[in-house]
Amino acid sequence: MKRLTLLRHAKSSWADSGQQDFDRPLNERGLKDAPTMSQRMLDRGCTPDLILCSDAVRTRQTAQFFVDNHQLPQGTVEFHEDLYLASAGTLLEFIQQTSQSINHVMVIAHNPGLETLGRQLHPSAPNNLVTCALLDFSLRSKTFVIEPDTQIDLLLHDYPKNTV
């Protein structure tokens, strides 16, 4: 069985109107939400073996909270320029290339690709994936290659303002 977690980056700043989208850092709320969501995952015993992360500043900053809080070893995070604003298809290609030795992969990226992929993986996935929201899936498979008959369960949909 494989586990896949999709995480939208935390809330980013629009304070500098001349700043390129790729270079936008987390804002105050994002700097609060990312460690909160990281801790929630840790409390559930949900620590990834590998993080595939967009190369944008806001996704890098979000990932760092997970690395620090989960005390992940060097090399756990792979930054990829092609994950910046990637489509669902591109995200899935990266996931499906994950080594069979990895049991839990996390993807930190952007909408609309993450939302679309989440809905493709499971019909109960939300139509709107807010910033720092996560979707956690279980794949009844020995690899991350998702076939039409691969059974996928949505284990969790969580987001910073979730109080349940």
- Uncertain runs: none
Coarse shape: globular
Q: Indicate the mean pLDDT.
A: 95
Q: For the record, give the distance between the C-alpha atoms at the N and C termini, rounded to a whole number.
A: 27 Å
- The CATH class is identified as Alpha Beta
Profile the largest sheet. 6 strands, mixed
Oligomer classification: single chain
Number of strands: 6
Strand content: 15-25%
Number of domains: 1
How would you explain this protein's 3D organization?
The chain is an alpha/beta fold and 164 residues long. Helices cover 29% and strands 23% of the residues. The chain has 4 helices and 6 strands, in the order E-H-E-H-E-H-E-H-E-E. The protein has a 6-stranded mixed beta sheet, with helices on both faces. Helix 2 links the parallel strand 2 (50-54) and strand 3. It is globular, with a radius of gyration of 15 Å. The protein starts with a strand and ends in a 6-residue tail after the last strand. 35% of the residues are buried.
What is the compact description of this entry?
The protein is α/β, with parallel strands linked by helices.
Question: Could you name the key traits of this structure?
Answer:
164 residues, alpha/beta, Rossmann fold, six-stranded mixed beta sheet, 4 helices, 29% helix, globular
What topology does this entry show?
Blueprint lengths: L1 E7 L19 H16 L6 E5 L2 H13 L7 E4 L7 H9 L7 E6 L3 H9 L12 E7 L10 E8 L6
Parallel strand pairs: 1-4, 2-3, 2-4
Antiparallel strand pairs: 1-5, 5-6
Helix pairs in contact: 1-2, 3-4
